[in-house]
UniProtKB/TrEMBL annotation:
<dbReference type="GO" id="GO:0030288">
    <property type="term" value="C:outer membrane-bounded periplasmic space"/>
</dbReference>
<keyword id="KW-0732">Signal</keyword>
<dbReference type="InterPro" id="IPR000914">
    <property type="entry name" value="SBP_5_dom"/>
</dbReference>
<keyword id="KW-0813">Transport</keyword>
<dbReference type="InterPro" id="IPR030678">
    <property type="entry name" value="Peptide/Ni-bd"/>
</dbReference>
<dbReference type="GO" id="GO:0015833">
    <property type="term" value="P:peptide transport"/>
</dbReference>
<feature type="domain" description="Solute-binding protein family 5">
    <location>
        <begin position="136"/>
        <end position="504"/>
    </location>
</feature>
<dbReference type="Pfam" id="PF00496">
    <property type="entry name" value="SBP_bac_5"/>
</dbReference>
<comment type="similarity">
    <text>Belongs to the bacterial solute-binding protein 5 family.</text>
</comment>
<dbReference type="GO" id="GO:0043190">
    <property type="term" value="C:ATP-binding cassette (ABC) transporter complex"/>
</dbReference>
<protein>
    <submittedName>
        <fullName>Peptide/nickel transport system substrate-binding protein</fullName>
    </submittedName>
</protein>
<dbReference type="GO" id="GO:1904680">
    <property type="term" value="F:peptide transmembrane transporter activity"/>
</dbReference>
<dbReference type="InterPro" id="IPR039424">
    <property type="entry name" value="SBP_5"/>
</dbReference>
């Protein structure tokens, strides 16, 4: 081997050695950083323990005689009471599963309930509802006053509010949040539809903000108090470049008990969302969990397997399997089960495309009513959902005063359905078993649904067979969630089955007012001028009794027109790891998603 070769070999060897040393150094630095981070979190937990211990003791020495310790704000009282339990300990993770992938986590741009659930831990509002009394309580606001005419609401903010980067949260941020939503260049049409009733939001001083409404609105306090407060120093830059915001996927930043460490970096194909405890949280009660995690597991069976393996902590069971799982001793030895009808739970429905230019049979309300008569919802609930649901009549929860008890759901009546279809011009003209119109076109359409849901697939198959017996040909169109959203935006579907979440009293303007066609959530293109007028009148009526009478009129319009076939309201069937404590059923449902966080895990049972 010549000298040049020896030098070359030695050079390669030296380079390899330097690379190995560098890798070792980087690995050591990562370990040291991880150890530092762990030490900081442990120190924070110790400080939290000290704060809680001090909270249990009598007033500190040196305080004026008879002076009381500052009380915990009502919005934090339930979480505070949990923190006083003898076995309370901060720490551990809570790991959820998402049944579908997320398109974006950016507030205002996102449209699905999963994104909203995650945002709820990061963004905060002025007010929250007490889960038992349902009364409003101050969160960011410590006090508020509603003018006699209901057109002006003044909020006083708490002192010491801060975003997760330590910057103060002031009334200017509240006013900015409203202005940002109302900016036509920002992709927030759904929110703008509601906030158009607000004339202006003014920051009077650092701690005082005033909402002025252009006209009376029954949910004025809910609307103003529920405004998600966005940081002007973070989101303000997007006023100059709105498309950057509209196309973003993870611009999630706020003042809440948790923060999104991947803000600006997360992508929809990550398959996982993690929130970490906000170390600068302003609230008087420290959030119990160190980390909240959501794993995207779209397949139903895979979610159950993951729960069995202990890799997720909560599993929302399918109806038929729920009864079987309750008989599984190994699983139930470490699980707690809950079955309940959420008072704010939403409903499943089939939306009939009535958009202008859509070539479907569903422009005729007689056809839509016939499709409801052809849908045996009671049998569907028993066959597919094992009885764990109730028939839905309308958007209004039957337990709410919005619902008119005099309206009963349409029963299964194929003969009435055939009569209505014949009136609309649909008959079996050639004897092939399929209805045709006068031009000879078959009554055939596609039903779009999310393919990952086993239960939804079973519902679709059941409906296909049932409708076929009446001469209606339905072709299932399974699709991914992102593709379904595109189909909705473009009107590229015949019918679609989905679900809406609900509230104690809901505003149906966004879904059913004709002004929201192509702009809001009236994606079916439904239009009824009489209903529009009733909705507008109800929204402007503050007195509850008069407003409920108007909602009853609106419900009858929807019942007659059937822009949707309202299918059912499901029971929530939940299994959860039994290490969690303070699990409670409230008038708002299970307190799993309560913010401030009410669940905790005793130190001896912590897993992470």
């Amino acid at each position: 081997m010549n000298r040049l070769t020896l030098i070359t070999v030695a050079g390669f060897g030296l380079t390899a050695l330097l690379i190995l040393l560098a890798m070792f150094q980087v690995d050591r630095q990562w370990r040291e950083l991880a150890e530092i981070r762990e030490a900081v979190e442990e120190q924070r937990d110790r400080i939290g323990d000290l704060r809680r211990e001090l909270a249990r003791r009598p007033a500190a020495t040196g305080a004026a005689e008879g002076q009381e310790r500052p009380t915990v704000p009502p919005a934090f009282q339930r979480a505070h009471e949990a923190s006083q339990e003898p076995d309370f300990a901060p720490g551990d993770w809570r790991v959820h599963a998402l049944g579908q992938g997320l398109d974006t986590l950016t507030p205002l741009v996102s449209t699905d309930a999963y994104a909203s659930e995650i945002q709820n831990y990061v963004l905060e509002s002025l007010l929250v509802r007490h889960p038992e009394t349902l009364e409003w309580q101050g969160l960011l606001a410590r006090d508020w006053e509603v003018a006699e005419d209901g057109l002006t609401i003044t909020f006083e903010l708490r002192r010491g509010l801060r975003f997760s980067d330590g910057e103060p949260l002031t009334a200017e941020d509240v006013a900015f949040s409203y202005d940002f939503i109302m900016d036509e260049d920002i992709a927030a049409p759904r929110q703008r539809a509601y906030y158009r009733r607000v004339q202006e939001v003014e920051a009077v001083d650092e701690h005082t903000v005033v909402f002025r409404f252009a006209e009376p609105y029954f949910k004025a306090l809910s609307l103003a108090g529920g405004l998600p407060v966005l940081a002007e120093h973070y989101y303000g830059r997007f006023r100059e470049d709105p498309e950057a915001f509209n196309n973003s996927r993870s611009r999630l930043f706020g003042s809440g008990p948790y923060r999104f460490p991947a803000a600006g970096e997360w992508t929809p194909d990550s398959g996982r969302v993690e929130l970490e405890r906000n170390p600068r949280y302003w609230g008087p009660v420290e959030p119990s969990f160190r980390r909240l995690v959501w794993e995207v597991i779209e397949n139903d069976s895979a979610r159950l397997t993951t729960y069995r393996n202990g890799d997720i902590d909560l599993y929302q069971a399918r109806p038929r399997e729920f009864e079987d799982l309750l008989e599984d001793p190994a699983l139930m030895e470490r699980s707690e089960s809950r079955a309940y009808m959420s008072p704010t739970g939403g409903y499943s429905y089939i939306a009939w495309n009535q958009r202008e230019g859509a070539e479907t049979p569903f422009h005729d309300p007689r056809v839509r009513r016939a499709m409801t008569f052809l849908t045996d919802r009671e049998a569907l609930i028993q066959e597919v959902l094992a009885g764990h649901a109730e028939v839905a009549v309308s958007p209004f929860n039957p337990r709410s005063p919005q619902h008119d008890d005099g309206i009963e759901p349409r029963g299964h009546d194929p003969e009435r359905a055939r009569a209505l279809l014949a009136e609309a011009g649909w008959e079996d003209r050639n004897g092939d078993g399929v209805l045709e119109d006068e031009a000879g076109n078959d009554f055939s359409f596609e039903l779009t649904y999310v393919q990952a849901s086993t239960d939804t697939q079973r519902v679709v198959e059941y409906l296909r067979d049932a409708w076929a017996r009446a001469g209606v040909e339905m072709v299932p169109r399974p699709t991914e969630w992102s593709v379904m959203l595109e189909a909705i935006d473009q009107g590229d579907y015949d019918a679609i089955t989905l679900g809406w979440t609900s509230d104690i009293e809901i505003d149906i303007y966004q879904m059913f007012h004709s002004s929201q066609i192509g702009e809001g959530d009236n994606y079916v293109g439904y239009s009824n001028p009489e209903l529009d007028a009733v909705i507008e009148q109800a929204r402007a009526t503050v007195e509850e009794g008069s407003r409920m009478a108007l909602w009853h009129r609106a419900e009858r319009h929807l019942f007659e027109d059937q822009p949707y076939t309202f299918l059912f309201r499901r029971e929530t069937l939940l299994l959860m790891d039994d290490r969690f404590r303070n699990v409670q059923q409230t008038r708002l449902g299970l307190n799993a998603d309560a913010v401030p966080v009410e669940w905790y895990v005793p130190a001896a049972a912590q897993r992470y």
